[in-house]
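$ fold --in a.seq
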Amino acid sequence: MKIIYAIATLSGTIIGVGLFALPYITLKVGFWVILGYFFVLGGLAILIHLFYGELALKTPDFKRLPGFAKIYLGNQGKNIAYLSTILGIFGALLAYLIVGGEFLTELLSPIFGGNSLSYTLLYFFIGASIIFFGIKAIAKVEFWGLVLFFAILVAIFFKGKSFIIVGNLFPSLDFSSIFLPYGVILFSLWGLALIPEIEEMLGERKKMILKIIPIAILIPVIVYLFFIYLILGITGPQTTESALTGLKDVLGDGIVTLALLFGILTTFTSFIALGLTLKKVFWYDLKLTKNLSWAITCFLPLFLYLAGFKSFIVIIGFIGTVMLGIDGILILLMYRKIKPKQILIYPLFLILSAGIIYQIIYFIK
């Protein structure tokens, strides 16, 4: 069961908020473009996760990315890794808070009333409480969460299959959005922060991590493509940025309630897993106190949300392209230290670097 739980933990954490942006982005560029992105970036994500897995196996102690960077790249590499890891996870937590709060509002406000802020705060305080106390059973939570996730997805399919129009998957291409999928898809396939957790979880069987990684990334790819087919096929041009709210007009309130539960479940498990990981970075690596580590981890994303950062596609696109791109480049540079003849490092380096440069230029404009 250790292996199954390890796969479920990595896959369950990868399948997060990025899932809900994919139908809307496919509406902008079309299914074939998205498929091409998944082929290239899926391969890139698997290779970089495998490289990181090898680094984890060769390096003593259960370190996180900054700890590895200090060993292989020195203090400068360590500092860059701290910055990219912390900002990347903060961005992810903010995105989960935005979308999870939206789903909780859609689910509960028709029953109890109230505004989106109150339900976002409810979502936050439950998640922050779990992160504060810790949860030793996170692997089991992710496993059963993934099982329930698939059950709900299948239920939505059978309820909505008669409404699916395959032609909705092939809208006219908006060339101004051709690079829009890059950061979002990279974000949607990234589970790098969990690799040390998976190694620790496997214990004596930690070498299995290199076999687990491709499976744990391919599962989200299949789920994402099916989700795009399902949601965009049903809602077509009415597809919303967060995917699920657009179902109401077609499928009615009952199935939307199920879909919203599915959305809350997906974002919440990832919110907890990444929150626990970031807390450990502050606590173990930066040597802050446990309570201060928790407070920074949880309340900074809440502060950003209250300050008005609420466009989750923009947030995950930027985090995926820049922060996760930097993480990937650091891993490639470290991996070159142990495998200097690995030629795949160079094309991967070019893809990630080009993405970062494009995003920064786009952001400045």
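$ fold --in b.seq
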Amino acid sequence: MVTIDQITKAYGNTSVIADLRLTIEPQKVTVMVGTTGSGKSTLLRILAGLERPTSGEIRWDSDLRSIGRPNLGIVFQEPRLMPWLNVRQNVEFRVRPVGHRQSSELAARFWNRWA
């Protein structure tokens, strides 16, 4: 279970999320619906650890804490390539475990699968 307790997120003087309280139950599907700029993506970014709330807290169920940081991810609506990497490096970036294989070994293993 995830408990969102009075989360607020502001950018300067503009509050995107104000005092949000929400409980996300395990084994349930939770849907957020709102207009553009209502804070849906901001909340997801906070939950994924990509941003910090201005105030408030998020409490994760103890079962999730016992295995470390919850395994969360985010898929952006638009393509998000890293402009400083070429196409191959962008693809390899996601499949390379941090601190593991050399790029050449990874490239051979990955690209040979599609050859």
